[in-house]
């Protein structure tokens, strides 16, 4: 983290360029102490205290507003405190399991974690101390987060995910990608590389920019979306994946995006997103049971949870039209002290005051409080103790086959760049409690694709979701992936979300390194 901020300061001194916002696409590793290190899914040899704790303690402060999503190598116990997002340190904001915020009129969304089909339909049941299963499942994407994001109607300018949307490689220089990463070929050709959930969001949200990481390679693509009607304006997404790729260190990119000149420098809530959270609050689940999101299939009385302009107006009135996110960062754990190492410190399940305040303000369920209640009631659901319930039917029903292929954000091929996780549990320090892992099972669920564009046959996703849970694919690791955004006022035209009253605005944008998106796939 120190090196990243030092790089930005060097950029300003040498080139007089000062980014207004730093975006990170996962594996941020907000590690406060030794207990946090033990909650990070990496082999023990990679558990080294870096520099985040200095920003957490207040010794240092991030020189630029930083917004990040979670990846698959995180202090999951820390991020779990903020399921709806919040400050992990002054000037460093986590978007939560999924979230949307605004900065200077630019609408920024994101989803944390990586896709794994066997956990996709479960609730957020994990809590520290984690076992060898939950230390990984804690960062797996859940269907409820995708469902919430799909309720959004207003345009998104920037969206972030850790793993790539499946099929995005067909829209860039695929030949060059396979030249750099030849072990991707099997997954690319079978269309199993990347997240199908992220692909669904890409086609639904159609953001102007989509940033990802995870696969240890820099890659750009340009996706022209199909329109649903003659009246709909054409939309396209510029995709960019960055990663800490030694020796090239392609983890930094400067993007110029037009901002609202009348907006302040504060990070703001997004009124539509808050309204969606309120509308979907009754869907919150903290159990391990697999379940489907509501859809128009005759089984649900309600399936459309998108919000009306009136609901958005009510949120604005609740906030007195002041959308500024309060700077209410609070220390919730002891900070690492180099002079007094505590190697045996254990993680505890913590309810963060930021989350308590946020839920009280908007009438939402505090997920961690619900998990605590379940533990106290001895329900055996949503807890991390020695007798976890293992009798739930996680295989789903035969009537509802999966729309998604098996685990797919990762690769079955050997990737020399990744951190290898021992799936046999050989890393004895990976677990902080004695729970035996319950078996993983492939999910079977249905989802409606009526609102997304039809993909070419070569990109179709198989419905076969059978897998051997004892041979779970290795999950991708990524270093810090950074994308920066800089306000600008003299750019070519770009359409982004309008004001909170629903008025759309026309704004300008210029993309540096525009040529990277013009690269054509030489396979064609």
Automatic annotation (TrEMBL):
Secreted as UniProt keyword: no
Subcellular locations according to the entry: Nucleus
Positions of the Lariat debranching enzyme C-terminal domain: 223-368
GO biological process: mRNA splicing, via spliceosome
Pfam family, one: DBR1
Residue segments, region Disordered: 374-524
Presence of keyword Transcription regulation: no
Compositionally biased spans, kind Acidic residues: 384-393, 419-430
Gene3D superfamilies registered for this protein in UniProt: 3.60.21.10
Compositional bias ranges of the Basic and acidic residues kind: 374-383, 473-498
Name of the protein described by the UniProt record: DBR1 enzyme
């Amino acid at each position: 983290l120190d090196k990243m901020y030092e790089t930005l300061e060097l950029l300003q001194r040498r080139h007089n360029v000062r980014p207004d916002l730093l975006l990170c696409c996962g594996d941020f590793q907000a590690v406060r102490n030794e207990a946090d290190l033990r909650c990070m899914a990496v082999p023990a040899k990679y558990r080294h205290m870096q520099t985040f704790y200095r920003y957490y303690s207040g010794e240092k402060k991030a020189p630029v507003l930083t917004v990040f999503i979670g990846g698959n190598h995180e202090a999951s116990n820390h991020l779990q405190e903020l399921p709806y997002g919040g400050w992990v340190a002054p000037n460093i904001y986590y978007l939560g399991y999924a979230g949307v915020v605004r900065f200077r009129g630019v609408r920024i969304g994101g989803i944390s974690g990586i896709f794994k089909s066997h956990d996709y339909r479960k609730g957020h049941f994990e809590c520290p101390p984690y076992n060898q299963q939950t230390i990984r499942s804690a960062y797996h994407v859940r269907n409820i987060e995708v469902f919430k994001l799909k309720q959004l109607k207003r345009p998104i300018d920037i969206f972030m995910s850790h793993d790539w949307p499946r099929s995005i490689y067909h829209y860039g220089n695929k030949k060059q990608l396979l030249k750099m990463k030849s072990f991707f070929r099997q997954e690319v050709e079978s269309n199993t590389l990347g997240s199908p959930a992220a692909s669904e969001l890409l086609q639904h949200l159609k953001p102007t920019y989509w940033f990802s990481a995870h696969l240890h390679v820099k890659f750009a693509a340009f996706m022209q979306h199909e329109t649903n009607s003659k009246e709909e304006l054409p939309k396209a997404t510029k995709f960019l994946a960055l990663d800490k790729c030694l020796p090239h260190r392609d983890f930094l990119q400067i993007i110029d995006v037009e901002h609202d000149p009348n907006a302040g420098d504060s990070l703001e809530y997004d009124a539509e997103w808050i309204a969606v959270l309120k509308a979907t609050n009754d869907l919150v689940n903290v159990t391990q049971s697999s379940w489907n999101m509501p859809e128009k299939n005759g089984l649900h009385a309600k399936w459309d949870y998108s919000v009306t302009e009136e609901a958005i107006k009510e949120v604005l009135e609740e906030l007195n039209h002041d959308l500024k996110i309060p700077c209410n960062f609070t220390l919730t754990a002891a900070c690492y002290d180099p002079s007094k190492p505590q190697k045996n410190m254990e993680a505890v399940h913590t309810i963060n005051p930021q989350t308590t305040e946020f839920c009280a303000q908007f009438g939402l369920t505090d997920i961690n409080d619900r998990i605590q209640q379940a533990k106290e009631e001895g329900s055996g659901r949503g807890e991390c103790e020695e007798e976890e319930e293992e009798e739930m039917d996680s295989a789903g029903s035969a009537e509802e086959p999966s729309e998604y292929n098996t685990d797919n954000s990762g690769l079955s091929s050997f990737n020399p760049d990744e951190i290898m996780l021992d799936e046999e549990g050989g890393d004895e320090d990976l677990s902080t409690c004695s729970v035996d892992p319950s078996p993983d099972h492939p999910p079977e669920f249905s989802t409606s694709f009526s609102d997304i564009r039809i993909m070419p046959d070569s990109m179709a996703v198989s419905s076969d979701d059978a897998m051997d849970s004892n041979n779970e694919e290795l999950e991708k690791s990524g270093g810090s992936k950074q994308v920066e955004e800089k306000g600008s006022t003299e750019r070519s035209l770009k359409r982004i979300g309008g004001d909170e009253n629903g008025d759309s605005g026309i704004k300008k944008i210029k993309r540096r390194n525009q040529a990277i998106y013009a690269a054509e796939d030489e396979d064609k």
